[in-house]
Please model this.
Amino acid sequence: MTTDSTPKVFNNPRKKEGFNGRVCSIVGVGSYVPERVLTNAELEKTVETSDDWITSRTGIKERRIAAANEYTSDLAAKAAQNALENAGITADQIDLIIVATITPDMLFPSTACLVQQKIGAKRAAGFDIEAACSGFIFALEIAQQFVMSHTYETVLVIGAEKLSSIIDWTDRNTCVLFGDGAGAAIIQARPDSHGLLTTCMGSDGSKGELLSMPAGGSRCPATPDSVASRLHYLRMDGKETFKSAVNAMLSAAQEVLRRCQLEISQIKCIISHQANLRIINAVSDRLGATEEQVFINLHKYGNTSAASVAIALDEAVKAGRVQRGDLVLLVVFGAGLTWGAAVIEW
Ligand code: ACO
Model:
């Protein structure tokens, strides 16, 4: 997956935390998006919108939609197989599978257990986590804790979503924004090698109502009324979410840079949650980053929630935008509210 180069030694806060030089590395990445492309032009035929409005307000041109018989676990399993090949390891080497998703196949069993069966990772334990669009970084941090504590050697982290299953396709405020897909990473400890330098996570439950799916849980189980009231679909206050996203992503990015004593100019590639081009630009401008540093793929996929930065990381690596020794900044924001950032020395 990587080419040789002299490792650069950056301030790694993890090393100060007593991990005896053990560094947690992403040793393989992979992704999968469904074949079906839904363009802005097609959406113009179903809701009152236009390619011009969607492109100018969001940067999104098209998104991928999973087939009716293709579920989150299927997308996740394909991304996982891609990451296993990239890492050069087999499924029976995986100790733990963590799937970040807000669109599990069902409430239980977990999507991680379904993925375990689909890829044949017989030795692995598995569970799901839910931090909406921030899920992949939250899952990376959890994986890192297991690896650094010597509990597990190899952890498969997946961000996967079939958001098309919870989108109200009659609501132009939300239906143009989202898409389906999955991204995966294999985490292992590599003594004295490159790796995750630091991560940070944050939450603010007081703003949970900005972005939610009201029904389907214990508060509002499915009833004919809840279905008729369209409560099983994602709802969002776009304007307030936008403001919160910019502020939270900016401070998370600044926090991880400060912890590693890095300037933004030292970062080779910034991979932000791909929700809205205007959010990505507002954050990178305030960080003082150049256009060349910022990786964008949301024009192709829209917002794929927990899968978003995972797919973008895979594409950035495979496009050569991230090379061995480069510093990568990941920054995310999602429902909860939740946010996070990570610095990786690739
Ligand atoms: N086509 C045409 N017009 C539209 C559309 C559409 N698809 N959607 C909304 N409009 C209209 C609105 O109704 C409104 O009309 P009005 O003024 O007559 O009421 C007008 O366009 C302006 O709407 P705004 O809300 O002001 O548009 P804004 O510039 O804020 O962009 C958007 C809306 C794209 C949703 C933006 O607010 C946004 O991206 N928010 C953040 C989303 C996000 O980051 N989510 C991240 C987390 S997602 C997760 O965790 C699952």
Observations:
- The chain has two domains: 13-189, 196-345.
- Residues 1-9 have pLDDT under 50 and may be disordered.
- The domain at 13-189 is CATH 3.40.47.10 (Peroxisomal Thiolase; Chain A, domain 1).
